[in-house]
Amino acid sequence: MVNFPYNTTDFAFTLEDSFIEFSTENEDTYFDLKVTIIYFDFFSEVEKEKVLEYKIPLLNQAQSFNVGRKIHRYLASLTTYTNTFGFMYKTAKVTFIATEFNIADDSEASTDTLTDVQFIAGEKPKLLENNIALLSNNTNYERITEKGLFIVHFLLPIGSHVLKLNKNGSEVASENIVVTEGNNVFSKKITAENFNATKGDVFNIKIDGTSFAKTFVIFPNNISSKLLIFIDKFKLFRVLECTGHFSFPDEYSQITHTYKQNLVEVLEIVDTKEINKFNINTGWVLKTDTATISSISKAKKVFLIENDTQVLALVPIAKKLTKEDSEAELYEYDLEFQINKQ
To answer: 108, 125, 187, 281: which could form a disulfide with 133 (CB 3.0–4.6 Å)?
Structure first.
């Protein structure tokens, strides 16, 4: 018997801690699990297929197996920043065929099948209601400045939905979204300046009819403002606006060779490598922004953006993060990146 933690109605998430449970009353058998993934690149209608197959040995006639993270590796990822939003990618569909075999002669004992499970990249969202979700690990307040921007991602089922943007409790914009089959991940980029944002303003964005919203608080402008776009666990763009000082230090690493010449030790440089770095201070952020700082520190790709154009490709150098300080109401962090030359 095979117990799948998925169904064909609700969305499944690749980084969710869900396990397929295998069990049997038969002696000396094993399971073969065939996983067929139908997926799409971002902004593409071209269907792709990947087939995975696993042998599942049993211990005391039972076994658990997590396949979500294996599916996650094969779903499409963004590689560069693109100023394109809306429907991001078509939802992957996964079919499972679990077959039980007798070890002695490889004869088939049983088969269980589950078809067309809808998979979304990432963890199970904290805010999920009737298959509508906010795709973000930070569901609390986030801060931006008067000239900043925010990006919000929603998971939406088939049908018509209304996205509403409120400023200080009053509606300032709305958008009708018609979701067709497979187009379930919708992203919206909003620039605060377009809505005459000033320090102290509070914006929230939500899908009409749901009980949750994403909230952004406007902080004062600073001398500088740099936008860092990174790819989070949902494989989607997130933004962090840094308003502190920044620098471009270069570091050098040398390969040296030491030898004796006339009984005197001589040092010789074999090669010198130059490492270009980018350091930036976040400026003052809210305590609830630490979830975003943590995400960018663990991100695999980060981009420095100027005028909606990618300027630098960066790799974060993660060190440590103080998420809680009993004496602080506002926080600031120094972030360090290595520049990938282009």
So the answer is: 125
